[in-house]
Amino acid sequence: MQLHRHPELLQRLAAAHALGTLRGGARRRFEAIAREQPAVRAAAIEWQTRVASLNELQAGAEPGPQVWTRIQNLVRADAEGAALAKQRQEAAVAPATGWWHSLALWRGAGLAGLCAVALALALLPALRGELDRRGAEVAALQRQLLATPDVRYVSVLNDDQARPAVLITFDPKHNRLSLQRVGGYQEAADRSLQLWALPPGAAPRSLGVLTPERLLQLAASESAVREVPALAISLEPLGGVPSERGPTGPVLFHGPLIHKQI
Amino acid sequence: MSADPDELLMDLIDRIAQRDEAALKALYDLTARKLYGLSLRVLGSAEAAEDALQEAYLQVWRSAGDYRATLSPPMAWLGLIVRSRSLDLLRRRAADRAHLTQELDEVLADTLPGDAPNPMDTSLASQQAWAMHQCLGQLENKQREVISLAYLRDLSHGELAERLALPLGTVKTWIRRGLDKLRDCMARFA
Q1: Which residues does chain B have within 8 Å of residue A64's beta carbon, measured at their own beta carbons?
Q2: Nearest residue of A to residue B159 by CA position?
Q3: Does the beta carbon of B28 lie under 8 angstroms from any beta carbon of chain A?
Q4: How many whole angstroms separate alpha carbon A70 and alpha carbon A240?
Q5: Residues of B whose CB is below 8 A from A75
Q6: Where does chain A have alpha helices with state H?
Q7: Can you tell me the distance from the alpha carbon of A58 to that of A195, in angstroms, rounded to the nearest whole number?
Q8: B101 pLDDT exceeds 90?
Q9: Is the N or the C terminus of chain A less surrounded, counting Cβ atoms within 10 Å?
Q10: Predicted-assembly ipTM surpassing the 0.90 threshold
Q11: Least confident stretch, A27-36, A47-56, A130-139, A243-252
Q12: What is the pTM of this model?
């Protein structure tokens, strides 16, 4: 049907389509024609834009202050997750691309080393190569040591049956809390676990909201955990609650925070 | 606020695409009131509307980079996101709890009889929305309300008739006449 030759009908159908009241077979037929005839498609889009204006014309209302806090928590968890994924990816990619981690290279070098030992007595200059390799190996170990987390605080949070649920370590070198879920607990999709520092004689302070993964990291400065004897995890609405309010849901896990001196 | 609110909002959305959390906060401060009103209209419950608002801004955070390609005015883009998240939640809640439809019906029934003048709010609205506002003002209240509800809650003629306790023919007539008037009026703004 040459719908664009019937402007009044076209306008009616396009309007009902945009409003959502054109349904079932009539809707499918209109959409099929719109895909074929640009004039029909243009009318459909024009009405979609008009009708969508209704979204902008509703009277405003004030949302509760906790809404922004939850958004902020989720956005930060998102950013942390992205950083962590990037880190993992880089760690996974590095061995494949770095010549230093090339297996073939080291197989070759190892073979060269064996030959060097075998030939050492006969061929002294070959020893110098072996020494260079050792020097490089020491440098690599030093680099590795720098990248290794420096764990200064440790905590195991137990559930109310004294079963371990979450292992937490804090690395002041990278300002990072690392969390490992060790129990089988998984919060519902519309809930979040939130980690709290429990300073003596003061209200709990939020350390962040846990994403659902088994392993995760939260950014935290050392001042947030220094002198804090215990940590707790509460069950909160998705995205958590503002720190100043303190936990609103049940405390599921808690345990002492130990400043490691060994 | 700058002379052109669209420019300001677009600049904020661009910065959000660059992972600028302060820009998201600024966008929230400017638009949350308006968009929460929309979500509240769709869902009819403060708690659910806040959940939908939260999901909507998280989506803005994640998809701000796609905004420019939509060619939409910023409030139109934000409005579509909030309506869509609100409708998702509405369907989930309706599936979870059958009694919810009854609560909604009461809210719906309340919105109809009022003879109040057009309560719509045009602050921050795009030009298109402003034109639509002018034209909606020419509709009878009942026509405007039924059209708004059909779109905002994604209701069919039959669902509207059932929930508003009106004959199906009446609902169809109100909507058709309302849309005809809108068509004639909007043609003058084109």
Answers
A1: 46, 50
A2: A21
A3: yes
A4: 6
A5: 21, 24, 58, 61
A6: 7-19, 24-36, 38-56, 66-97, 103-120, 125-147, 222-225
A7: 38
A8: no
A9: C
A10: no
A11: A130-139
A12: 0.65
